[in-house]
Design a protein that fits this description.
By secondary structure, the chain is an alpha+beta fold. The protein has 2 domains: 117 residues, no CATH class; 38 residues, no CATH class. It is built from 4 helices and 8 strands. The strands form 2 sheets. Strands 2, 3, 4, 5, 6 and 7 form a 6-stranded mixed sheet that branches. The protein has a two-stranded antiparallel sheet with strand order 1-8. Strand 5 and strand 6 form a beta hairpin. The termini are far apart. The structure holds zinc ion (2 copies). The site of one zinc ion (ZN) has 6 residues, from loops.
């Protein structure tokens, strides 16, 4: 889904794009998330000289995996965004691609006089995915010994947490008992 910047220049007016993107199209490389249904986007692309301004709205239903209890849970995304893209200053030589990673999220870059709207939407969704998603703040997670879901109640395991300063003493005691 590319917007041709030269065509946009000849239009002399912003381009409105209303499109749903499936999970496959968005190609979000993330094992902790999935899209419940296609993400809906409405995007206005306008040109200011060489700069491309992208204003949009995005709605998506994500399924994330809780990093504590490993259960899937739903997360709704409703967001607006306003981004600016400039021509990519990177020079490509003889097919060699100097892929720089730009950390500046406010300003992006486009190449070859075209803007990939699919990539814009994909990036906006990825920004909403936490590094360690939790189903609820109070999620107790799984027992590290038996794997039971502690949200459903305590398990029968003995807590293993002994004050580490006591460990040498216990070791001495154990040896004396042998
Ligand atoms: Zn959880
Ligand atoms: Zn347990």
């Amino acid at each position: 889904m590319f917007v041709d910047i030269n065509e946009l220049r000849e239009r002399h007016e912003p381009l409105l794009i209303v499109k749903d993107f499936s999970e496959e199209e968005l190609n979000i490389d993330n094992s902790i998330s999935a899209l419940q249904n296609p993400a809906h986007s409405e995007v206005k692309v306008s040109l200011w000289g060489e700069r491309v301004c992208v204003e949009g709205k995005l709605g998506a239903d994500l399924v994330l995996t809780c990093s504590r209890c490993l259960k899937p849970f739903a997360r709704k995304i409703q967001k607006g965004f306003e981004l600016e893209y400039r021509p990519d200053p990177v020079v490509e030589t003889e097919g060699e691609d100097f892929g720089l990673s730009y950390t500046d999220l406010e300003v992006g870059f486009y190449r070859d006089d075209r803007l990939d709207v699919r990539a814009v939407i994909s990036e906006q969704i990825v920004l909403e995915i936490p590094m360690k998603p939790v189903c609820q703040k109070a999620c107790k997670g799984l027992c590290e010994q038996c794997g039971a879901d502690l949200n459903e109640g305590p398990c029968n395991c003995q807590p293993r947490s002994i004050d580490p300063r006591l460990e040498p003493l216990l070791e001495v005691k154990r040896r004396m008992g042998e």
